[in-house]
Amino acid sequence: MQQSEPEKTNSTPIPEPVPTPRSSKKEEEAYPDITIEESPSSESQLNEFGHGKGGVLTAYFNIVCVVAGTGTLGLPRAFADGGWLGILIMLLAYGMAVYSGIVLIRCLYYKPGKRLPDYKAIGTAAFGKFGYIIASILHFLNLFGCPALYLVLAGSNMHQLLQHTAGGLTQVIWTVIVGAFLLIPSLTQKTLHEVTLTSAVGAICTMIAVFVVVIQAPMDYYQHPERTVVHDGVIWTGFPTALATIAFSFGGNNTYPHVEHALRKPEQWKWAVAAGLSTCTLLYFLTAIPGYYSYGRDTQSPIYDSLPLGAGRTVATIVMTIHVILAIPIFTTSFSLEFERFSRADEERLGVWGAWLARAVIRTVTMMILVVLAVFVPFFSDFMSLIGALANCGLVFLLPILCYLRLTGWRNKKYYELLFCALTVFLGIIGCVFGTIDAIKALVHDFRTQSTH
């Protein structure tokens, strides 16, 4: 049998996996959306597992486009919550995000000669049905929570930009208008082919906003020497909230299997993810440090709300509005496609018109729920902290590490790697549990404050 072959035949040494649920026929019926790709039998076919033809530069740009986004806007506020300790938290989160991104892809290849397709399949392979459920919940929380948060920002920005013009509508009305407008591409397109282009435009918009903050915030600080700006070295009570916001900024793990699959040489993945997250972290520091330095405890989220009225603030608001409007269809279409696959709303089962009708109903209801959520929870900063704590702490810091140790074992790891894994899991739990509690308390306070006005 092939099991007697030595492991040295693999290009990347993979420790013998611990006993885990195998992909039996019964399991495949239980998880219909999970398939395991096998390597081609022909050795002449260099591109095994159906990998794409992209280079490391393509993967790098995809990572930057996916990860660098609206989380940037909340990072100065994260420093205000945690003090200058936020610099250390950011560096730790950066190292942990790179490590989890690398080991997540290793999990795809834990079984020699086979490749798992996505995040949920990793959870299933590691912890069976329980892992599948947890991975699915975190995945869908991310896919559903982010567009709701983006609708909040889009409605708020449109209200601020046009409040003194003929288009001076309320934030609620603008949220509904944006949601209705974005329903059109959802209904007219079965899938979203322009994801990479759309993400690239979004990343460019983020970079423009970062540039505005880097220039405008220090200028505002030095133009008002009479203003007292208070900074804190460390605020321990704000640590979980700061960590949750930073975790939101490093979200993107659930897309990594697809980005890696497009690589012509998968062994280059570690360089792509390290370079991509390094670029994102640089952008984050360029926003967080000048923003917190200039406004201290009074820093707002999004950060451009702290900037003085003028061209800089207007430009930042416009480009981030463009970014979120382009990003929302990526999340809603991804969520809808997975739900349609889960509910088997396909042409083979329902026919062409039946499938289109089912798709229209699912996507319309999805957008309606998102709009209602954005209307009733219009608090960008605390909403971001909640999504970061609930979904991203698990997706970035917890699940990849636990699945990696489960699938490849822990006895074959160096002690310092195990210590780093333990620290990552510990911080992930702190951010997930206490970050969620703090975010819920903050949202309750927001609602009470809103009701008194």
Radius of gyration: 23 Å
CATH superfamily: Amino acid/polyamine transporter I
Q: Please tally the β strands and state the result.
A: 2
Any guess at the CATH architecture?
A: Up-down Bundle
Which secondary-structure class do the elements indicate? mainly alpha
Mean pLDDT: 82
Indicate how many domains the architecture comprises.
1
CATH topology: Amino acid/polyamine transporter I
- The percent range for helix content is over 70%
Shape: globular
Give the percentage of residues in beta strands. under 5%
Low-confidence stretches: 1-32, 39-47
For the record, the CATH class is Mainly Alpha
How do the SSEs run, as a string of H and E?
HEHHHEHHHHHHHHHH
The largest sheet, given as strand count, sense and whether it forms a barrel, is: 2 strands, antiparallel
Strand order of the largest sheet: 1-2
Measured between the Cα atoms of the first and last residue, the distance is 74 Å
Membrane topology: Multi-pass membrane protein
Organism: Circinella minor
Subcellular location: Membrane
Family: Belongs to the amino acid/polyamine transporter 2 family.
